[in-house]
Recover the amino acids of this structure.
């Protein structure tokens, strides 16, 4: 008697990630494995059948660089909503929540994701804090801590090595961390925007061999020709980059990644399926895009059991409607089980059970208007202050200057400038102010405990009262994001409570998406125009991202990797 398979997917056309061809075939599944790929109608017994007529059968999508916390969701809710869009495997770097609560937070994330239908693999954060000595996070990981955590089940990588300036400079701590990862033969994930020449060689020599950041086109090519796996997220995908890569004698390995996508973006636009459509619009052929979603990231993560529709491979499959270029998931299977249908989660997508709560870790004194008085040792009179200038496209910031009066040891900024303040949220002293340029904002403020990567309390506003109102709202929620309007901050325009470590919500993805969308709209209505308002705000504190950033200890010159004062003189 012939072997009986569990499932037959019939009537569709399989897309080969090896050749780029589409061919008619029936796909047979036994358990969690593809057991056969046969000509249409070939004899084979199966207990169940799926009619894939008019659809394309492709491998499940693999995200080789992302952060679950950027969706503001727990791993279970993240899995449910992204599986439905075709993302069956992720390498998650939990450096947001690990900066808050250390090793315990990483164990919590791993446990939370273990029972989902999504393959959630993990990288140990390499930079906790992101910039040692220039900020206070809620935790710190030594090279010994990282070496131990790299042996935990489900861990396959060293998370993105963001402090690339330290690596290039031969910093002992970063050398010990990368050496520990190389000794255990794990993947070393990179982060080095526009690093080039001898410095790029020094970075690559440590074993870090990928980059997902935004680079000038010539730097993309330089990195690719040196064997660095280029991971292209949405902000990296443009016609110039596509044409330059496609014009090479041989196309290098490419991965499409999400990096940071909020819950409302995932629900409204999609996950890797959205990035795929952006890549097609930039000029990449659909079969190249599919390979960058599947086979290449699977190989990058050393997952040799997926990335192609082939017998013996894991039955992570996506059935797409229409042309390949649309990347429109109709049905998603993970390990042979249906987990998504028409963009919505199916029964097998979510984990059962509840998690032990993770504390919010928000320890800040009550926030009133006096907390936003900016004191200085400068004498009375008008002085030049170093300012941060933001833009509407990416997370780069520039150093600028603004003149402000000082009276009685206090900077008289109200009515003259927008100000950003960072307050330590882990029971330490520390509050740093700076003027912020590049936005024309109405009266109001935003406050957030989601502020890369130490996640201290970040507040931006046009008046002390408005900033106090936003910060008090966030603290009342046990952490999160709040936007207030009016000179007194009298109207809460939007709020998103994030009581899990001050960076996540335990609520369903649909609820969090609604809250995130409301915050996004409130920021834009306030005047915070940006392609990704969440990232624009939350990376003002990312002291490893060029060029001038602010932490709970100082303004930081990122390129020189040193603190700078509020006054340039």
């Amino acid at each position: 008697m012939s072997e009986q398979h569990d499932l037959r997917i019939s009537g569709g056309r399989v897309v080969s990630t090896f050749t780029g061809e589409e061919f008619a075939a029936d796909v047979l599944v036994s358990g969690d494995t593809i057991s056969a790929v046969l000509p249409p109608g070939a004899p084979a017994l199966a207990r169940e059948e799926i009619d894939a007529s008019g659809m394309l059968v492709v491998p499940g999508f693999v995200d080789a660089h992302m952060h679950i916390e950027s969706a503001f969701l727990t791993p279970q809710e993240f899995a449910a909503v992204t599986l439905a869009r075709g993302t069956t495997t992720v390498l998650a770097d939990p450096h947001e929540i690990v900066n808050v609560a250390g090793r315990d937070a990483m164990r919590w994330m791993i446990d939370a994701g273990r029972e989902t239908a999504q393959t959630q693999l993990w990288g140990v954060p390499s930079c906790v804090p992101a910039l040692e000595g220039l900020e206070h996070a809620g935790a710190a990981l030594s090279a010994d801590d990282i070496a131990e955590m790299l042996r935990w089940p489900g861990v396959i990588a060293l998370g993105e090595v963001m402090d690339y300036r330290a690596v290039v400079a031969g910093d002992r701590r970063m050398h010990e961390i990368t050496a520990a990862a190389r000794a255990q033969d794990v993947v070393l994930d990179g982060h080095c925007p526009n690093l080039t020449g001898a410095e790029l060689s020094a970075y690559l020599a440590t074993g870090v061999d990928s980059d997902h950041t935004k680079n000038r086109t010539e730097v993309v090519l330089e990195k690719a020709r040196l064997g660095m796996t280029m991971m292209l997220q949405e902000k990296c995908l443009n016609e110039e980059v596509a044409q330059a890569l496609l014009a090479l004698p041989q196309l290098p390995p490419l991965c499409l990644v999400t990096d940071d996508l909020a819950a409302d973006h995932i629900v409204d636009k999609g996950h890797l399926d959205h990035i795929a459509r952006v890549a097609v619009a930039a000029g990449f052929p659909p079969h190249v895009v599919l390979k960058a979603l599947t086979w290449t990231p699977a190989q990058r993560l050393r997952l040799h059991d997926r990335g192609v529709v082939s017998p013996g491979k894991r039955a992570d499959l996506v059935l797409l409607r229409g042309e390949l270029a649309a990347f429109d998931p109709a049905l998603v299977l993970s390990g042979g089980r249906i987990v998504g249908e028409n963009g919505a989660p199916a029964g097998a997508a979510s984990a059962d059970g509840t998690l032990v709560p993770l504390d919010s870790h928000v320890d800040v004194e009550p926030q009133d208007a006096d907390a936003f008085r900016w004191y200085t040792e400068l004498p009375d009179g008008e002085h030049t202050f170093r300012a941060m200038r933001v833009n509407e496209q990416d997370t780069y910031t520039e150093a600028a200057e603004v003149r402000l009066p000082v009276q009685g040891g206090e900077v008289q900024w109200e009515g003259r400038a927008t100000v950003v303040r960072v307050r330590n949220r882990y029971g330490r002293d520390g509050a740093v102010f700076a003027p912020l340029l590049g936005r024309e904002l109405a009266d109001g403020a935003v406050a957030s405990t989601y502020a890369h990567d130490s996640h201290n309390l970040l507040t931006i506003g046009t008046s002390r009262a408005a900033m106090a109102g936003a910060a008090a709202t966030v603290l009342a929620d046990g952490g999160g994001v709040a936007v207030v309007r009016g000179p007194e901050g009298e109207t809460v325009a939007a709020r998103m409570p994030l009581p899990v470590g001050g960076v996540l919500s335990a609520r369903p993805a649909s609820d969090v998406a609604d809250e995130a969308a409301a915050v996004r709209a409130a920021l834009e209505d306030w005047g915070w125009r940006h392609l990704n308002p969440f990232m624009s705000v939350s990376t003002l504190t990312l002291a490893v991202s060029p060029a001038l950033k602010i932490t709970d200890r100082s303004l930081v010159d990122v390129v020189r990797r040193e603190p700078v004062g509020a006054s340039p003189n």
Remarks:
- The longest strand covers residues 398-407.
- The chain has a mean pLDDT of 95.
